[in-house]
Every structure is written in C-alpha cells, then in structure tokens.
Amino acid sequence: MKLYIVGFGAGNSGGMTLDARSALLESGLIVGYDTYIKLLKDIFPNKEYLSTGMRRERERVLIALEKAREQTVSLVCSGDPELYGMAGLAIELGADSPDVDITVVAGVSAAFSGGALLGAPLTNDVTIISLSDLLTPREKIEKRLRFAAQSDMVTVLYNPSSKTRADYLKRACDIFLEYRPADTVCGTARLIGREGQETRTMTLAELRETQTDMLTTVFIGNSDTSLINGKMVTSRGYRNE
Asked: Whole-model pTM above 0.90?
C-alpha cells in the first residue's frame, strides 16, 4: 500500500501545494503531531486522523507504516518534510516494510513562506540552521553558525528560542556580530500563514535583544541585503549587469 510523507506548508490552505492536497485527499488516514492535525482538521474536516505528541516521531512513523499496509496513509509535517521533517526517518524505518510504497511530497518551508512575507531576502545563496539542540549538540550548532556568519550568506534560523533555550538566539547573534556589522538587516516572521501572523524588520544588534519563540523564523541578511520600502531585499546583482 501507499504512505505519503506530506509537507503541508505553513498550515493554511493557501500555502499548500496541489500535490500535497491531492495526497491528503487520496489518503484514508492522516497521521501527525497534535498541532498539525488540529490545523488540517479545519481544512479536511471529514478525514480520519491519528495524532501523537511532541518527541514521538519514531512512534508516529511506525504507526503510519503499520496503517499503510491496510490503506493509503499520509504522514504530515509542516513546511517541507525533508527540512527538519519526517521524510528521512520514514524512509529509514520503511526499509523494514518493503511492501509499503513511500512517496515524499514537497511543501513550502517557513524559510520561503516567511521570506515572502518579509519581501525577498533569499534571492541569493542561503543557509538554514536550527538552533534546537534536541538532536544536534550545541557545539555543532555554534560551529555551523560561525561558518555561516563568515560565508556572508543570508542565514535563516529555525527554532530560535524556547523556555529551556532562552539565550540561544542571543548567542547566535553574538557569533554573527563577530563577522557582520551591527546594522545588518534582519527580520522575523511568526505564526506564518496562521491567525496572529506578524513580521518585523530590524538590525542585527536589535535582533540580539528580540524575544522569539518556536513559532518564529529568523532571517539574518548578508552584505547585499537592504530595506526597500519596508521590505527586506537581498540583491543578486541584476541591476549591475
């Protein structure tokens, strides 16, 4: 049978690809994290759902694989299922279930949906880093931040702060301030595509003092990033050709 690993974007129907919608409509069961299921129930109220709490990713995948032996199932992730999502784990665990056909369905990540809200910060090379140290040691995260800061690429930060990581974004900004000017253009997008959506632009120095949470995506510009009519824009050089 069939198991779709579906990225449904930010959580609203407008940010969902046609392929994602098609997979969800085809599926007899939708499996996912509690918060994601609540979002999808508003869009597909007549579907059958099965949800689990945070940090139970392996359990979710195994449930989805088991159910997919009986019917078509979608295992859902916000954004894109490859970017901090379930696609890799599902394929790894699915190696023991050769009878289940696994298909990954791409979605619009917060980097791109949030970037669009801010303007056009991702016009050139980009690096994306999660500040969550649940699965990646903090030392490795800081090493990646340092290389990103030196590279002069626009950097997008996921999971910038939580109750147990209140100072992680401040530490990330300190690393960037070693290599980039304090007035570097930055931005944040929170609750992308959901009720209460908000965006802000600021300098790197101001970002250091900004309160964020797990629902916030952070954008740190490069030397070619500027504010144009309130929009965060990274030039690619077309006007210089």
From this structure: yes
